[in-house]
Amino acid sequence: PEKPSLMRSLMAVPLGAAAQPVGVLVVADHQQVGRFTPEDLEMLSRFAALATVALENAQLYQTARLGARFERLRSHISSTVTASRSVREFCEKLLEEISLAFGYRYLSIDLLEGGGVGEWIPSAQEDPDWMQADSHLDQMVCVPLKARGQVLGVLGVESNSEAPLGQSDLGQLEAIAEAVSFALENILLVETLEKR
């Protein structure tokens, strides 16, 4: 077997602001010692500065897209409440809207009473409370749907290793839950009053 070649020359510069680097840009030469000059390092530093701007722009664009998705969801929530004749119909339409806006495939809303906090489950099989309904789903993010301090239910997203869930999904679902909880409270109140 061939031995791995050692780096004979290396340059590395940080990506991002000096106070908050987001990565390192590395260039290596496996053949020549002293390959890089101060001018090469200066050029790499300039390239890293441009790459940092590109990364920051991509993050700003992603943030703007996410904000637009939330605004669309909020506008759809009010029309969904108005058009729904039952809590079940509201929840079904809401799940469809969330799926369209954020790309989640496996969503659920479970209505309940009690307290709770959001939870990210990186490996559902290791969670003692998890019951597997579908063998290819092995990750879940659950967040409470709360209005005025009362837990109304749980919003959950399931996925698999091909589309892994992470901490960012927990934050995103918490924001979605906050946006929909008062609408859910209203439709629950209307349904309760209609049953009287």
Question: Can you walk through the features of this model?
Answer:
The mean pLDDT is 80. The chain starts with 8 loop residues before the first strand and ends with a helix. β5 (139-147) and β6 form a beta hairpin. Strands 3-6-5-4 form a four-stranded antiparallel beta sheet, covered by helices on one side. Strands 1-2 form a two-stranded antiparallel sheet. The relative contact order is 0.11. The chain is elongated, with a radius of gyration of 24 Å. The protein is α+β, with helices and mostly antiparallel strands. The longest helix is centred in the N-terminal third of the chain and has 46 residues, at 38-83. It has helices at residues 38-83, 87-102, 167-195; strands at residues 9-17, 20-29, 106-111, 119-121, 139-147, 150-159.
Which regions have little confidence, pLDDT < 50, spanning 5+ residues?
Answer: none
Number of helices: 3
C-alpha-based Rg, rounded: 24 Å
Mean pLDDT: 80
Strand residue percentage: 15-25%
The biggest beta sheet is recorded as:
4 strands, antiparallel
How do the strands of the widest beta sheet line up side by side?
3-6-5-4
User: Rough shape?
Assistant: elongated
* Topology pattern, helix = H, strand = E: EEHHEEEEH
Tally the beta strands.
6
Descriptors:
alpha+beta; four-stranded antiparallel sheet; two-stranded antiparallel sheet; 3 helices
SSE blueprint:
Blueprint: E1 9-17, E2 20-29, H1 38-83, H2 87-102, E3 106-111, E4 119-121, E5 139-147, E6 150-159, H3 167-195
Antiparallel strand pairs: 1-2, 3-6, 4-5, 5-6
Helix pairs in contact: 1-2, 1-3, 2-3
